[in-house]
Amino acid sequence: MTGEIGQLSLILALLMAAVQAFFPLVGAAWGLPLWMAVGRPAARAQGLFLAVAFWCLVQSFIANDFSLAYVAQHSNSALPLFYRISAVWGAHEGSVLLWALILGLWTAAVSVFNRGLGEAFVARVLGILGLISAGILAFILFTSNPFERLIPAPPDGQDLNPLLQDFGLAVHPPMLYLGYVGLAVPFSFALAALLSGSLDPAWARWSRPWTLTAWAFLTLGITLGSWWAYYELGWGGWWFWDPVENASFMPWLLATALIHSLAVTEKRGAFKAWTVLLSILAFSLSLLGMFLVRSGVLVSVHAFANDPKRGLFILVFLGLVIGASLVLYALRAPKVQDHARFHWFSKESLLLANNILLVTAAASVLLGTLYPLVLDALGLGKISVGPPYFASVFTPVVTPIFLLAGIGPLVSWRQGEVTQTWRRVRWMIPLSVGTAVTMGAVFFDLKHFQTLAAVSCALWLAATSLLPLAQRLRRREGLSSLRQPAGFYGMTLAHFGLSVFLFGVAISNQYSVEKTVRLSPGQSVELSGYTFLFKGIQESEGPNYRSDTGWFEVYAGDQKIAELWPEKRFYRVQRSVMTEAAIDWGVRRDLYVALGEALEGDSWSVRLYVKPWVRWIWLGGGLIALGGFLAAADKRYRIARVYGSAPQGALRSTSVPS
Amino acid sequence: MGVRLKARLGRHRCRPKIMLKYLLPLGLFAALLILLGIGLTLNPREVPSPLIGQPAPNFTLQRLDDPSQTVSEEIFRGKVSLLNVWASWCLACRQEHPQLMELRKRGEVLLVGLNYKDDRGSALELLERAGNPYQVIAFDGDGKAGIDYGVYGVPETFVIDKQGVIRYKHIGPITPEDWEQKLAPLVRYLEKQP
Q1: pLDDT tens digits, residue range A3-29?
Q2: pLDDT grade, residue A384 (50/70/90)?
Q3: Which residue does chain A place closest to B129, by CA atoms?
């Protein structure tokens, strides 16, 4: 019964999405206020139906309803409740439903938080979101229905892929999708602006908080994914340049470019057409990612069960959505006039450089991701492009970004002062290089020039991004000088987070050590100053697996600093073996033990890693995301709205301290 | 008038260039779309099996229904056979099951089952309930024979000729289209060979 309610809700949501697309768009084109007004209630109703459908699927998983094919394929009665719930989006059908639900939530949010936007504008935004939603819902209903029945129902399900039986599945996809799908909002704003023909700074001001929020979620999602891969896959790496990782990274790069170019468009009225194009491209790459993951054109650890019909559907959808928006862009953008002029050394020109670099970076990732496909399509063989390509192409492109990110905020709009800026930052160069060399000499060695350069870069970025704050404090205006808009703190925090990230990458990539050894109980092995003592193996039973748990003690000198319990699990239903690495984490190093194979006698093959400063990678990612949320919460965006709408709102805006 | 016309002409002259700039993203996207379309017709997983053209790997396994008897690769001699790898825990195999029953009814080929990483009881119970399409089933409980055959997903089906040589490997469930378009023509061709 629950399944049928879910199915019905999905159909109703599709109808609502069609209504939400048709009436507001046509109403806005013909100037019919009544038709335009349909948008808001339709958007909320669509969101509600999607929530009901989603809840029905969750309920079916909780109740072990194996008469639903999707539940039977991805759950099992022995699967713990927590994983049964996250299993809802553990495979293709459910994850598209999550995608649709999140789009519904974003749409509902736009239908609520839009005070001050013109009626026609709101109608167009909701209409475009409705079109996207209708496409996705049709995709679910026609090719990927999670509510399909399996008759006769099997007595038990096939269980969730053991790799996914983890906390990571509960948080990574929802955050990532909040980001991916959230990019539909700036996309719709850009198209609505093109349709209405007015690309005024107000449009950019509107788009900014939404873009920032989506971007922050995307950052968080990618960071969580990287952390999950690190501890779950048992390979000790944090980024693998896997096609699907790239599929999330490309929209991130473009969205990062977008939040910067939106600033220029809002503040200076420049780069208008470019900002519109970026808004379109960022969401396009998010859709392209969906195609790459779900169509089976590329081989990846993430790929979902593949079906050519699905691939074709998404490709047609992709063609319609992106094609139509690029046609609209080609028709309308030439009429957009940029009057703003700026000096070669100004905030505008630095942000332009930022955009060029980020877009180049995204293009190089796209090229590397699609290259195997190009060769295959031309009949030149099957190859895979790996980390060496990305390291050699990507590094030179992003290095200037790290160098410029700290300077950008110090330079004025329109015309910057070269000498004055130079005076402010010049002592940072010896400072950051000197600190890097000292740190290297104390903790590691000075042999690796690249690592020293990267650490200097990170320190430079940290110092320059904190500089404005430090200078304000030095001016002795007391704490009042710290009363800056949230946007300023968000930016500072994100740039600082970037430096933390780079710091972690530089050091952990260079100084991580690993060793694969054969150990019998009682034997120990030394790695990078730590002694790993293997005490033995214990067998135990989990809810749906049998586990061999290793017992390790780690000593630094004579002092015991950690006990580690890595596991080798055999999942009964899927008949697959999984490695659960054990990690002792710390600010300055992670100790990482993964069990390999059982060898003859009672000896085991064991993989050991010591990874210095690796946590800083995800700490940096987290700080960047936090900066994004902080900037999105800037009062400026809300006050601007209130001014445009009602007098009592204007009163309230004066009562808050600026 | 003349000035105006000139200005107009001037505008016209530079217009295509401007339009081109804005059409560029659309053009790139169209190229990408074509590439992805071609990509859809290819299968990155379709790695040709190294076993094709090779004699079927040796095995000696117990029969599923009777542990006292054994099956070996000798069974493929003299007739065109399908070796179908299946298991009771595999849902895709159930999807393929009616098609196999249909083949058994027509009796065109020798249908040999390889019961892969399964539990004898539940495998027999399933056949009891749904029907047994196979003439003979070899029981490969620990999946060792499967390794020799390069099995990495269930179901998989091998077409083996009268000499005991593997001629084709089909990955995934056999749909009626698969049978009509790929497997049946090959089987009929092999029937005519010595």
Answers
A1: 999 999 999 999 999 999 999 999 999
A2: low
A3: A152
What CATH number labels A166-333+344-382?
1.20.120
Burial class of residue A393 in the structure, from the number of CB atoms within 10 Å of its CB (0-12 exposed, 13-18 middle, 19+ buried): middle
Least confident among A199-208, A568-577, A628-637, B99-108: A568-577
Tens of pLDDT, residue by residue over A397-409, are 999 999 999 888 8
CA distance, residue B57 to nearest chain A CA (Å): 24
How many domains does chain B fold into?
2
Identify the domain containing residue B109 by its residue range: 60-192
Residue B52, domain member (yes or no)? no
**Same-domain pairing of B78 and B142:** yes
Yes or no, beta carbons of A326 and B38 under 8 Å apart: no
- The whole-angstrom separation of Cα A7 and Cα A634 is 41
Whether B80 is in a domain gets the answer yes
**Does B167 lie in the same domain as B118?**
yes
Indicate yes or no: CB of B39 within 8 angstroms of CB of A277.
Answer: no
Chain A residues touching B47 at Cβ < 8 A: 382
On whether both B141 and B70 belong to a single domain, the answer is yes
B19 and B97 assigned to the same domain: no
B39 with A373: Cβ contact below 8 A: yes
Partner-chain contact B35 A377, CB within 8 Å: yes
Q: For residue A344, what pLDDT band results from cuts at 50, 70 and 90? A: confident
> For the complex shown, is ipTM > 0.90?
no
Give the Cα separation of B106 and A32 in Å (integer).
66
Please report the DSSP string for A532-570 in residue order.
EEEEEEEEEE-SSEEEEEEEEEEEETTEEEEEE--EEEE
CB contact under 8 A, B47 and A373: no
Verify that B105 and B75 share a domain, yes or no.
yes
Do B102 and B174 belong to one domain? yes
B14 to chain A, any CB pair closer than 8 A? The answer is: no
Token pair 């000593």: residue: A555
| B101 assigned to some structural domain | yes
Residue B47 in domain: no
Q: Any CB–CB contact under 8 A between A335 and chain B?
A: no
Q: In this structure, which amino acid lies at residue A115?
A: R
User: Which of B12, B28, B36, B47 best probes binding to A when mutated, by most A CB atoms within 10 angstroms?
Assistant: B36
A276: left (phi over 0), alpha (psi -120 to 50) or beta: alpha
The predicted model gives A61-70 an average pLDDT of 94
For chain A, first and last CA: distance in Å? 55
Residue B163's domain is classified under what CATH number?
3.40.30.10
Instruction: Give kind and range of the element (H or E) at residue A631.
Output: helix A615-632
- Alpha-carbon Rg for chain A, nearest whole angstrom, is 27
Query: How many Cβ contacts (< 8 angstroms) between chains A and B?
Result: 79
**Dihedral pair phi/psi, residue A547, rounded to 5°:** -125, 140
Nearest to A291 among B29, B36, B47 (CB): B36
pLDDT at residue B152, as a whole number: 64
Write out residues 342-371 of A within 8 Å (CB-CB) of B.
370
Overall average pLDDT of the A414-443 stretch? 88
pLDDT of residue A306: 57
**Residue A35 near residue A23, CB atoms below 8 Å:** yes
Domain regions of chain A by residue span: 1-161, 166-333+344-382, 398-511+617-628+645-655, 513-613
Find the CB nearest A308 among B29, B40, B89: B40
**3 state SS for A380-449:** CCCCCCCHHHHHHHHHHHHHHHHHHHCCHHHCCCCCCCHHHHHHHHCCHHHHHHHHHHHHHHHHCCCCCH
The rounded distance, in Å, linking the Cα atoms of A280 and A273 is 11
B105 and B34 assigned to the same domain: no
**Which member of B40, B47, B91 has the closest CB to residue A72?**
B91
Name every chain A residue with its beta carbon within 8 A of the beta carbon of B42: 297, 373, 376-377
Q: Are residues B149 and B91 in the same domain?
A: yes
